[in-house]
Design goal:
By secondary structure, the protein is of the alpha/beta class. The protein has 19 helices and 13 strands. The strands form 2 sheets. The chain has a 7-stranded parallel sheet. The protein has a 6-stranded parallel sheet with strand order 10-9-8-11-12-13, sandwiched between helices. The radius of gyration is 28 Å and the shape is globular.
């Protein structure tokens, strides 16, 4: 029996793949999402090497991190700040969509600069060329950064994966068309029910493609040329992508068409039923009138709010003693005495708190991962969006009847208190949240199981092409049928001109005949 167990163990090891992961996006939430997938793959015997701006304090078996140590440093310097606490994220809350978009472009270029100057990048570059990786997974949200490593390591198959929900951002990699008439550009919110909204969205979608193709991609290529002088153009390399794992679920975000190699795995990061610590379990069990969780996520921290906003929030909580508030607050001090009904912790187990039946409301920044967790566990959201996709996530939650919007930039205690009371007392929010939860959960397997299966599918079929759309080889104008529309336009114009010419000739002929008859009569 022991011999059989040893043989099974050795068999698992023999079938384990070497996987290189390029975590290109500087965001703790993106890291949390992809780490969940990498941990699951490592538990199945695969050996993972991840090039990442983030790193883990606790070692995970079979998962090795190479740190891009300069990325966050460059990002903070770019904002004239030494620490995230000094960055005024809240000034972004009233920023127009186009300004938010160009801030996103600047964010991407700073990540590129920081990653390329990191020792971690050089460490991976110094790996021997004959080092065997069986698969590359990369976060594609800011472009095909460092995909020249695919050539260095013998062109293993490539999977794109991101913690973001947009499938429209996969067209450069796997094909398909952009549909700005009914699919908004991520990070921006235009009313596509109006003609002007569609005009704006069409313009910004086209601009986004042009910027990525002719601004960001050349920047990436310029960096790559220093170390890969004979390397392929990154725009060509990303077209070798076999599969895309996108953090998407139709129960909670934009409905859009998916190619068969774009796999929705929305919510794979959700950790279920791990159990609360004993002290928090007692707090939640005793919250008979309801508990409320308050967290602004990982990028924007409550410590950044400033004393004035912190005071307004605490006074709103103090005025609602019937409810228990749990506030994820990263600093050591608050400006006023913490009310008895408020529990402040630097870290809170978000999923397990949302899973508790007494958790009645989630005051959130409306980041995608938090929105998905609230949707999974059926908890309404009081949204305080700050930047990027948070406004869009909240808009879709409000359309589903599970959320209301507040203002974190100009928070005021009495308005905040009234909004909390409204959502706690009106049962429609929880009823709609339960409906959304049932739709989100009703799947034949968990999103994480699906992601692992498809990852191993690519390992089993590294040379497969049957899922590849020929549209990935088309240029933007052909893909959007602009060439066909131009053809129809010119044919129509030519036909109109011929018709006009014939009409003019007929008119002139008739006029001459009429004039001739008149001359004869005279």
């Amino acid at each position: 029996m022991k011999f059989f167990i040893v043989l099974c163990f050795l068999f698992c090891l023999a079938n384990g793949a070497n996987i290189l992961v390029l975590e290109n996006t500087a965001s703790p939430s993106h890291h949390i999402w992809i780490k969940t997938l990498l941990t699951a793959l490592a538990e199945r015997g695969h050996n993972i090497t991840s090039l990442s701006p983030d790193r883990e304090e606790n070692k995970i078996p079979n998962l090795h991190y190479i740190h891009l140590e300069k990325v966050y440093e460059v990002l903070y310097d770019a904002n004239n700040a030494e620490h995230t606490e000094d960055m005024d994220f809240f000034s972004m809350t009233d920023m127009p969509p186009t300004a938010m978009y160009f801030m996103w472009i600047e964010y991407c270029t700073q990540i590129i600069s920081g990653a390329a100057s990191s020792k971690g990048y050089q460490e991976l570059l110094n790996y021997p060329d004959d080092f065997k990786f069986d698969l590359i997974i990369y976060d594609y949200i800011i472009g095909p950064m460092f995909l020249n490593f695919a050539e260095k390591f013998g062109n293993p198959p490539i999977i794109a994966a991101t913690a973001f929900y947009s499938a429209s951002m996969t067209t450069n990699m796997v094909g398909g068309a952009i549909s700005p008439s009914y699919i908004p550009l991520p990070f921006l919110t235009f009313d596509l029910n109006t003609f002007w909204g569609r005009v704006q969205n069409y313009f910004i979608c086209t601009l986004d493609h042009l910027i990525k193709t002719y601004y960001i991609a050349p920047k990436l290529n310029a960096i790559a040329r220093k170390d890969f002088p004979n390397g392929a153009d990154l725009r060509d390399l990303e077209k070798r992508t076999k599969l895309v794992l996108v953090n998407k679920n139709p129960a909670s975000d934009v409905i859009e068409p998916l190619l068969p190699n774009v796999i929705p795995v929305g919510g794979l990061q959700i950790q279920r039923n791990k159990g609360l610590p004993e002290d928090l379990q007692k707090v939640m069990d005793s919250a008979k009138e309801g508990a409320i969780l308050f967290s602004l996520g990982t990028n924007v921290q409550s410590a950044m709010l400033g004393k004035a906003r912190q005071t307004e929030i605490l006074e709103a909580f103090r005025a609602l003693p019937q409810y228990t508030f749990l506030w994820k607050f990263e600093a050591d001090e608050l400006p006023v005495k913490v009310p008895d009904n408020v529990i402040v912790r630097k870290w809170l187990p978000q999923s397990d708190l949302l899973a508790h039946p007494n958790l009645k409301l989630f005051i959130s920044h409306s980041g995608l991962l938090s929105t998905q967790e609230a949707a999974w566990f059926g908890v309404p959201i009081l949204g305080l969006p700050v930047f990027a996709d948070q406004f869009d996530n909240l808009r879709m939650s409000m359309q589903a009847g599970v959320a209301e919007q507040g203002s974190i930039g100009k928070i005021e205690r009495f308005d905040f208190q009234k909004l909390i009371e409204k959502m706690m007392k009106d049962p429609k929010y929880r009823e709609n949240a339960k409906i959304r939860s049932l739709a989100f959960r009703d799947q034949k397997e968990t999103p994480l199981e699906r992601a692992v299966w498809w990852t191993e599918f690519v390992l089993r079929h590294p040379n497969m092409t049957f899922l590849r759309s020929s549209s990935v080889d088309f240029g933007f104008f052909v893909k959007q049928s602009w060439d066909v529309l131009a053809f129809f336009f010119f044919v129509s114009l030519f036909s109109f001109l011929i018709f006009l010419k014939i009409t003019c000739l007929i008119f002139r002929s008739c006029y001459k005949k009429k004039k001739s008859r008149k001359s004869k009569k005279d």
